[in-house]
Amino acid sequence: MMDRSKTLARAARLRMNFEAAGAQVVEPPLLQPAGTLLDLYGEDIRARAYVTSDAVRGEQMLRPDFTLPVVQMHMREGAEPARYTYAGEVFRRQEHDPDRASEYLQVGYEVFDRDDPAAADAEVFALIALQLRGLPLRAATGDIGILMAAVEGLNTTQIRKSALMRHIWRPRRFRSLLDRYAGRSAVPESRLKLLSSESGLTGETTVLGKRSEAEVEARIALLRADAAAPPIAENELLALEALMAVRETVPFAIEQMRDIAVDLPAINPALDRLDGRIAALKARGIDIDSLDFEASYGRTSMEYYDGFVFGFYAEVRPDLPPIASGGRYDALTRQLGNGGEIPAVGGVLRPDLMLMLEEGQS
Protein backbone atom coordinates (compact mmCIF):
# COMPACT_ATOMS: atom_id res chain seq x y z
CA MET A 1 0.00 0.00 0.00
CA MET A 2 1.43 3.35 -1.06
CA ASP A 3 2.00 5.83 1.80
CA ARG A 4 -0.76 8.41 1.28
CA SER A 5 1.31 11.23 2.80
CA LYS A 6 3.99 10.66 0.16
CA THR A 7 1.38 10.67 -2.59
CA LEU A 8 -0.11 13.93 -1.31
CA ALA A 9 3.36 15.50 -1.11
CA ARG A 10 4.16 14.46 -4.68
CA ALA A 11 0.80 15.77 -5.89
CA ALA A 12 1.47 19.11 -4.20
CA ARG A 13 4.90 19.33 -5.81
CA LEU A 14 3.50 18.56 -9.27
CA ARG A 15 0.82 21.19 -8.86
CA MET A 16 3.44 23.74 -7.80
CA ASN A 17 5.42 22.94 -10.94
CA PHE A 18 2.35 23.63 -13.05
CA GLU A 19 1.72 26.85 -11.13
CA ALA A 20 5.29 27.88 -11.96
CA ALA A 21 4.44 27.30 -15.64
CA GLY A 22 1.66 29.87 -15.36
CA ALA A 23 -1.36 27.82 -14.29
CA GLN A 24 -4.09 29.02 -11.94
CA VAL A 25 -5.12 26.56 -9.21
CA VAL A 26 -8.76 25.40 -9.33
CA GLU A 27 -10.64 23.02 -7.02
CA PRO A 28 -13.89 21.69 -8.54
CA PRO A 29 -16.35 20.10 -6.04
CA LEU A 30 -16.21 16.37 -5.38
CA LEU A 31 -19.89 15.99 -6.30
CA GLN A 32 -20.76 16.85 -9.90
CA PRO A 33 -24.25 17.10 -11.44
CA ALA A 34 -24.95 13.79 -13.15
CA GLY A 35 -27.18 15.35 -15.80
CA THR A 36 -24.33 16.97 -17.73
CA LEU A 37 -22.30 13.78 -17.84
CA LEU A 38 -25.32 11.73 -18.89
CA ASP A 39 -26.18 14.25 -21.62
CA LEU A 40 -22.66 14.00 -23.00
CA TYR A 41 -22.00 10.29 -22.71
CA GLY A 42 -25.37 8.62 -22.17
CA GLU A 43 -25.94 5.82 -19.74
CA ASP A 44 -22.47 4.35 -20.47
CA ILE A 45 -21.00 6.75 -17.91
CA ARG A 46 -22.88 4.94 -15.12
CA ALA A 47 -20.60 1.95 -15.57
CA ARG A 48 -17.59 4.14 -14.77
CA ALA A 49 -18.88 6.48 -12.06
CA TYR A 50 -20.32 6.42 -8.56
CA VAL A 51 -23.83 7.88 -8.54
CA THR A 52 -25.78 9.33 -5.62
CA SER A 53 -28.72 11.68 -5.21
CA ASP A 54 -30.56 13.94 -2.79
CA ALA A 55 -33.89 15.71 -2.77
CA VAL A 56 -32.41 19.18 -3.43
CA ARG A 57 -29.57 18.68 -5.90
CA GLY A 58 -30.91 15.64 -7.71
CA GLU A 59 -28.64 12.97 -9.15
CA GLN A 60 -24.93 13.54 -8.52
CA MET A 61 -21.70 11.74 -9.44
CA LEU A 62 -18.50 11.54 -7.46
CA ARG A 63 -15.99 13.37 -9.64
CA PRO A 64 -14.87 10.87 -12.36
CA ASP A 65 -12.29 13.37 -13.64
CA PHE A 66 -11.49 17.08 -13.56
CA THR A 67 -11.69 18.09 -17.20
CA LEU A 68 -15.44 18.51 -17.51
CA PRO A 69 -15.90 20.75 -14.43
CA VAL A 70 -12.83 22.80 -15.42
CA VAL A 71 -14.30 23.33 -18.90
CA GLN A 72 -17.66 24.35 -17.40
CA MET A 73 -15.93 26.81 -15.09
CA HIS A 74 -13.82 28.30 -17.87
CA MET A 75 -16.72 28.68 -20.29
CA ARG A 76 -18.71 30.54 -17.58
CA GLU A 77 -16.06 32.92 -16.32
CA GLY A 78 -12.57 32.19 -17.67
CA ALA A 79 -10.30 34.77 -19.26
CA GLU A 80 -8.37 34.06 -22.46
CA PRO A 81 -5.86 32.59 -22.75
CA ALA A 82 -5.97 30.53 -19.54
CA ARG A 83 -4.01 27.76 -17.87
CA TYR A 84 -5.29 25.73 -14.93
CA THR A 85 -3.92 23.13 -12.57
CA TYR A 86 -5.53 20.98 -9.89
CA ALA A 87 -4.81 18.08 -7.57
CA GLY A 88 -7.38 15.87 -5.92
CA GLU A 89 -9.26 12.60 -5.80
CA VAL A 90 -11.20 11.11 -8.70
CA PHE A 91 -13.46 8.10 -8.49
CA ARG A 92 -13.89 5.33 -11.08
CA ARG A 93 -15.72 2.07 -10.68
CA GLN A 94 -13.41 -0.86 -11.50
CA GLU A 95 -15.79 -3.82 -11.62
CA HIS A 96 -13.98 -5.20 -14.67
CA ASP A 97 -10.64 -5.03 -12.83
CA PRO A 98 -11.01 -5.08 -9.02
CA ASP A 99 -7.22 -4.87 -8.55
CA ARG A 100 -7.25 -1.27 -9.83
CA ALA A 101 -7.91 1.59 -7.44
CA SER A 102 -11.40 3.06 -7.56
CA GLU A 103 -10.24 6.25 -5.78
CA TYR A 104 -6.92 7.93 -6.55
CA LEU A 105 -5.19 11.29 -6.73
CA GLN A 106 -4.94 13.04 -10.05
CA VAL A 107 -2.89 16.13 -10.91
CA GLY A 108 -3.58 18.00 -14.12
CA TYR A 109 -2.65 20.88 -16.39
CA GLU A 110 -5.14 22.39 -18.87
CA VAL A 111 -4.58 25.05 -21.54
CA PHE A 112 -7.31 27.15 -23.17
CA ASP A 113 -5.68 29.13 -25.98
CA ARG A 114 -6.94 29.85 -29.50
CA ASP A 115 -3.75 31.42 -30.90
CA ASP A 116 -1.64 28.32 -31.68
CA PRO A 117 -3.20 24.89 -30.95
CA ALA A 118 -0.09 23.02 -32.15
CA ALA A 119 2.10 24.94 -29.71
CA ALA A 120 -0.40 24.29 -26.89
CA ASP A 121 -0.37 20.54 -27.66
CA ALA A 122 3.42 20.55 -27.49
CA GLU A 123 3.43 22.65 -24.30
CA VAL A 124 1.18 20.20 -22.43
CA PHE A 125 2.99 17.09 -23.67
CA ALA A 126 6.46 18.46 -22.98
CA LEU A 127 5.55 19.80 -19.52
CA ILE A 128 4.06 16.46 -18.45
CA ALA A 129 7.01 14.56 -19.94
CA LEU A 130 9.30 16.77 -17.85
CA GLN A 131 7.55 15.68 -14.64
CA LEU A 132 8.15 12.04 -15.61
CA ARG A 133 11.84 12.28 -16.50
CA GLY A 134 13.92 9.39 -15.21
CA LEU A 135 11.04 6.92 -15.07
CA PRO A 136 11.05 3.86 -17.38
CA LEU A 137 8.09 4.95 -19.50
CA ARG A 138 7.01 4.62 -23.12
CA ALA A 139 5.14 7.53 -24.64
CA ALA A 140 2.29 6.78 -27.05
CA THR A 141 0.63 9.46 -29.18
CA GLY A 142 -2.25 9.57 -31.60
CA ASP A 143 -4.78 11.91 -33.17
CA ILE A 144 -8.50 11.15 -33.04
CA GLY A 145 -9.03 14.04 -35.45
CA ILE A 146 -7.41 12.09 -38.29
CA LEU A 147 -9.82 9.17 -37.90
CA MET A 148 -12.77 11.57 -37.57
CA ALA A 149 -11.71 13.31 -40.79
CA ALA A 150 -11.46 9.94 -42.54
CA VAL A 151 -15.02 9.03 -41.51
CA GLU A 152 -16.40 12.43 -42.57
CA GLY A 153 -14.71 12.00 -45.94
CA LEU A 154 -16.27 8.64 -46.77
CA ASN A 155 -18.47 8.58 -49.87
CA THR A 156 -21.59 7.38 -48.07
CA THR A 157 -24.71 8.83 -46.46
CA GLN A 158 -24.55 11.38 -43.67
CA ILE A 159 -26.64 9.08 -41.49
CA ARG A 160 -24.00 6.35 -41.80
CA LYS A 161 -21.17 8.78 -41.15
CA SER A 162 -22.93 10.14 -38.07
CA ALA A 163 -23.40 6.62 -36.71
CA LEU A 164 -19.72 5.81 -37.25
CA MET A 165 -18.68 9.09 -35.61
CA ARG A 166 -20.77 8.30 -32.53
CA HIS A 167 -19.03 4.96 -32.13
CA ILE A 168 -15.41 5.90 -32.84
CA TRP A 169 -14.78 5.38 -29.10
CA ARG A 170 -16.40 1.91 -29.18
CA PRO A 171 -14.10 -0.03 -31.52
CA ARG A 172 -16.20 -3.22 -31.65
CA ARG A 173 -19.41 -1.39 -32.48
CA PHE A 174 -17.54 0.78 -34.99
CA ARG A 175 -16.16 -2.35 -36.68
CA SER A 176 -19.60 -3.94 -36.79
CA LEU A 177 -21.13 -0.86 -38.40
CA LEU A 178 -18.29 -0.58 -40.89
CA ASP A 179 -18.74 -4.22 -41.98
CA ARG A 180 -22.48 -3.68 -42.38
CA TYR A 181 -22.10 -0.48 -44.40
CA ALA A 182 -19.53 -2.18 -46.63
CA GLY A 183 -21.82 -5.15 -47.28
CA ARG A 184 -19.45 -7.54 -45.55
CA SER A 185 -21.93 -8.76 -42.93
CA ALA A 186 -25.36 -10.25 -43.49
CA VAL A 187 -28.49 -8.28 -42.58
CA PRO A 188 -30.26 -9.94 -39.61
CA GLU A 189 -33.34 -11.96 -40.56
CA SER A 190 -35.59 -9.85 -38.32
CA ARG A 191 -34.50 -6.67 -40.10
CA LEU A 192 -34.98 -8.22 -43.53
CA LYS A 193 -38.53 -9.16 -42.57
CA LEU A 194 -39.21 -5.65 -41.33
CA LEU A 195 -37.76 -4.01 -44.43
CA SER A 196 -39.65 -6.28 -46.81
CA SER A 197 -43.08 -5.62 -45.28
CA GLU A 198 -45.25 -3.04 -47.05
CA SER A 199 -45.87 -1.22 -43.78
CA GLY A 200 -43.34 -0.88 -41.01
CA LEU A 201 -45.81 -1.92 -38.36
CA THR A 202 -47.48 -5.27 -39.00
CA GLY A 203 -49.90 -7.27 -36.96
CA GLU A 204 -46.91 -9.15 -35.58
CA THR A 205 -45.09 -5.99 -34.53
CA THR A 206 -45.11 -5.01 -30.88
CA VAL A 207 -44.38 -1.41 -29.96
CA LEU A 208 -42.14 -1.49 -26.89
CA GLY A 209 -41.23 1.17 -24.37
CA LYS A 210 -42.36 4.78 -24.79
CA ARG A 211 -41.95 5.16 -28.55
CA SER A 212 -45.02 6.25 -30.45
CA GLU A 213 -46.15 4.59 -33.66
CA ALA A 214 -44.91 7.64 -35.60
CA GLU A 215 -41.45 7.32 -34.03
CA VAL A 216 -41.29 3.64 -34.91
CA GLU A 217 -42.36 4.35 -38.50
CA ALA A 218 -39.70 7.08 -38.77
CA ARG A 219 -37.07 4.65 -37.54
CA ILE A 220 -38.17 2.05 -40.09
CA ALA A 221 -37.98 4.67 -42.85
CA LEU A 222 -34.37 5.40 -41.87
CA LEU A 223 -33.54 1.68 -41.92
CA ARG A 224 -35.04 1.36 -45.39
CA ALA A 225 -33.09 4.37 -46.66
CA ASP A 226 -29.92 2.84 -45.23
CA ALA A 227 -30.65 -0.52 -46.85
CA ALA A 228 -31.07 1.21 -50.21
CA ALA A 229 -27.74 3.07 -49.98
CA PRO A 230 -24.81 1.58 -51.90
CA PRO A 231 -22.02 -0.03 -49.85
CA ILE A 232 -18.87 1.86 -48.93
CA ALA A 233 -16.36 1.44 -51.75
CA GLU A 234 -13.74 -1.25 -51.25
CA ASN A 235 -10.82 1.11 -51.80
CA GLU A 236 -12.13 3.50 -49.13
CA LEU A 237 -12.76 0.65 -46.72
CA LEU A 238 -9.29 -0.81 -47.19
CA ALA A 239 -7.73 2.64 -46.79
CA LEU A 240 -9.67 3.23 -43.55
CA GLU A 241 -8.59 -0.16 -42.23
CA ALA A 242 -4.97 0.62 -43.14
CA LEU A 243 -5.26 3.96 -41.37
CA MET A 244 -6.59 2.39 -38.16
CA ALA A 245 -3.70 -0.10 -38.23
CA VAL A 246 -0.92 2.53 -38.43
CA ARG A 247 1.42 2.06 -35.49
CA GLU A 248 4.93 3.37 -36.04
CA THR A 249 7.38 5.99 -34.91
CA VAL A 250 6.16 9.42 -35.94
CA PRO A 251 8.22 9.86 -39.17
CA PHE A 252 7.19 6.47 -40.58
CA ALA A 253 3.58 6.94 -39.43
CA ILE A 254 3.35 10.25 -41.30
CA GLU A 255 4.77 8.62 -44.42
CA GLN A 256 2.24 5.78 -44.25
CA MET A 257 -0.70 8.11 -43.66
CA ARG A 258 0.26 10.38 -46.56
CA ASP A 259 0.15 7.29 -48.79
CA ILE A 260 -3.25 6.33 -47.38
CA ALA A 261 -4.50 9.87 -48.09
CA VAL A 262 -4.42 9.06 -51.81
CA ASP A 263 -7.66 7.08 -51.19
CA LEU A 264 -8.79 9.18 -48.21
CA PRO A 265 -7.94 12.76 -49.25
CA ALA A 266 -10.16 14.18 -46.49
CA ILE A 267 -7.45 13.40 -43.92
CA ASN A 268 -4.87 15.72 -45.52
CA PRO A 269 -5.83 18.84 -43.47
CA ALA A 270 -5.59 16.76 -40.26
CA LEU A 271 -2.18 15.48 -41.37
CA ASP A 272 -1.10 19.07 -42.01
CA ARG A 273 -2.08 19.89 -38.41
CA LEU A 274 -0.06 16.88 -37.27
CA ASP A 275 2.96 18.27 -39.16
CA GLY A 276 2.54 21.55 -37.27
CA ARG A 277 2.39 19.71 -33.95
CA ILE A 278 5.52 17.74 -34.80
CA ALA A 279 7.40 20.96 -35.49
CA ALA A 280 6.18 22.39 -32.17
CA LEU A 281 7.23 19.23 -30.30
CA LYS A 282 10.68 19.39 -31.89
CA ALA A 283 10.96 23.01 -30.77
CA ARG A 284 10.24 21.80 -27.22
CA GLY A 285 13.10 19.29 -27.42
CA ILE A 286 10.99 16.14 -27.92
CA ASP A 287 12.77 13.34 -29.82
CA ILE A 288 10.25 12.82 -32.63
CA ASP A 289 12.27 10.05 -34.30
CA SER A 290 11.68 7.71 -31.35
CA LEU A 291 8.15 8.88 -30.44
CA ASP A 292 5.42 6.31 -31.14
CA PHE A 293 2.26 7.20 -33.07
CA GLU A 294 -0.83 4.96 -33.15
CA ALA A 295 -3.70 6.08 -35.37
CA SER A 296 -6.24 4.21 -33.20
CA TYR A 297 -4.79 5.37 -29.89
CA GLY A 298 -7.31 6.98 -27.54
CA ARG A 299 -10.40 5.21 -28.87
CA THR A 300 -11.17 3.61 -25.50
CA SER A 301 -10.63 6.81 -23.47
CA MET A 302 -13.21 9.36 -22.38
CA GLU A 303 -15.15 10.46 -25.43
CA TYR A 304 -14.34 14.14 -25.25
CA TYR A 305 -10.95 13.82 -26.97
CA ASP A 306 -11.18 14.89 -30.62
CA GLY A 307 -7.58 15.62 -31.65
CA PHE A 308 -4.11 15.01 -30.23
CA VAL A 309 -4.03 12.25 -27.59
CA PHE A 310 -1.13 10.84 -25.58
CA GLY A 311 -0.24 8.49 -22.75
CA PHE A 312 2.84 7.40 -20.80
CA TYR A 313 3.08 3.71 -19.88
CA ALA A 314 5.40 1.73 -17.61
CA GLU A 315 7.34 -0.71 -19.78
CA VAL A 316 8.24 -2.84 -16.75
CA ARG A 317 4.63 -2.89 -15.47
CA PRO A 318 2.26 -3.43 -18.40
CA ASP A 319 -0.49 -4.24 -15.89
CA LEU A 320 -0.64 -0.61 -14.73
CA PRO A 321 -2.95 2.03 -16.22
CA PRO A 322 -1.32 5.08 -17.86
CA ILE A 323 0.99 6.97 -15.52
CA ALA A 324 -0.04 10.11 -17.38
CA SER A 325 -2.43 10.81 -20.26
CA GLY A 326 -4.21 13.62 -22.01
CA GLY A 327 -5.38 15.16 -25.23
CA ARG A 328 -7.28 17.86 -27.08
CA TYR A 329 -11.00 18.39 -26.47
CA ASP A 330 -12.13 21.36 -28.59
CA ALA A 331 -15.61 19.90 -29.17
CA LEU A 332 -16.26 19.69 -25.43
CA THR A 333 -15.90 23.45 -25.10
CA ARG A 334 -18.51 23.87 -27.85
CA GLN A 335 -20.90 21.48 -26.11
CA LEU A 336 -20.58 23.26 -22.77
CA GLY A 337 -20.00 26.78 -24.02
CA ASN A 338 -23.58 28.01 -24.57
CA GLY A 339 -22.61 29.28 -27.99
CA GLY A 340 -18.94 29.88 -27.21
CA GLU A 341 -15.92 27.72 -27.86
CA ILE A 342 -12.14 27.75 -27.51
CA PRO A 343 -9.41 25.26 -28.45
CA ALA A 344 -8.36 23.34 -25.32
CA VAL A 345 -5.87 20.62 -24.41
CA GLY A 346 -4.75 19.10 -21.14
CA GLY A 347 -3.22 16.15 -19.36
CA VAL A 348 -3.19 14.39 -16.00
CA LEU A 349 -0.66 12.45 -13.91
CA ARG A 350 -0.96 9.73 -11.28
CA PRO A 351 1.47 10.62 -8.45
CA ASP A 352 0.83 7.28 -6.69
CA LEU A 353 1.98 5.32 -9.75
CA MET A 354 4.99 7.60 -10.19
CA LEU A 355 6.09 6.82 -6.62
CA MET A 356 5.46 3.11 -7.12
CA LEU A 357 7.78 3.06 -10.12
CA GLU A 358 10.44 5.11 -8.34
CA GLU A 359 10.44 2.75 -5.38
CA GLY A 360 10.65 -0.21 -7.74
CA GLN A 361 13.81 1.26 -9.26
CA SER A 362 15.55 1.78 -5.91
TrEMBL record:
Alphabetical list of Pfam families matching this protein: tRNA-synt_His (PF13393)
InterPro entries in alphabetical order: aa-tRNA-synth_II, aa-tRNA-synth_II/BPL/LPL, HisRS-like_core, HisRS/HisZ
Domain Aminoacyl-transfer RNA synthetases class-II family profile: 14-351
Origin superkingdom: Bacteria
PROSITE patterns named in the record: AA_TRNA_LIGASE_II
GO molecular function list: glycosyltransferase activity
Record's keyword terms, sorted: Glycosyltransferase, Transferase
Quaternary structure note: Homodimer.
Record protein name field: Histidine--tRNA ligase
Taxonomic source organism: Pseudophaeobacter arcticus
